[in-house]
Amino acid sequence: MQYFQALKLGQKRVAEAREYLNTLTDGKAMPALALADSKSNIWKPVGEENLYAFVDESAGFILTDNSGYILALVDSTGSSKTIVQGVTKLQKENLEKAFVKDNIPKFEGKVILPV
Q1: Exposed / middle / buried, residue 29 (Cβ in 10 Å: 0-12, 13-18, 19+)
Q2: pTM of model > 0.90
């Protein structure tokens, strides 16, 4: 796929994931990655599927503040499409219930966040 085709499709998927996450987080979702991580020059958009993941320092990321977790909606490879920072433990628990209700599966791998 050509770069601009992959980017355009990836941006569409990011926008859809962000719109959904904004409904759960009072508009706090930010866009993340539109292109999947690739070791070659083959351009791929992020996947269409949505899985959720909560990231904290135990996942190997160093968070710059102490305001809680980062919530990411990711594709099946772990590429984050949209994120919300500063999620508290109580918010995390409530969001997990909403994801279960909406049939959004939990991602169990390594999350790829924007740098």
Answers
A1: buried
A2: no
| Torsion sign over Cα 71, 44, 76, 9 | positive
Q: Any idea what DSSP says for residue 109?
A: S
Do the Cβ atoms of 2 and 53 come closer than 8 Å?
Answer: no
Place of tokens 């949209």: 82
Please give the Cα distance from 31 to 28 (Å, whole number): 10
Rounded distance, CA 53 to CA 11, Å? 20
User: How many whole angstroms separate alpha carbon 22 and alpha carbon 28?
Assistant: 6
pLDDT digits (tens, 9 = 90+) for 33-77: 999 977 777 899 999 999 999 998 545 555 555 568 999 999 999
Give the DSSP per-residue string, 12-70.
HHHHHHHHHHHHHTTT--EE--SB---SSS---BPPS--EEEEE-GGGT---SSSS-EE
Rounded CA separation 68/88 (Å)? 5
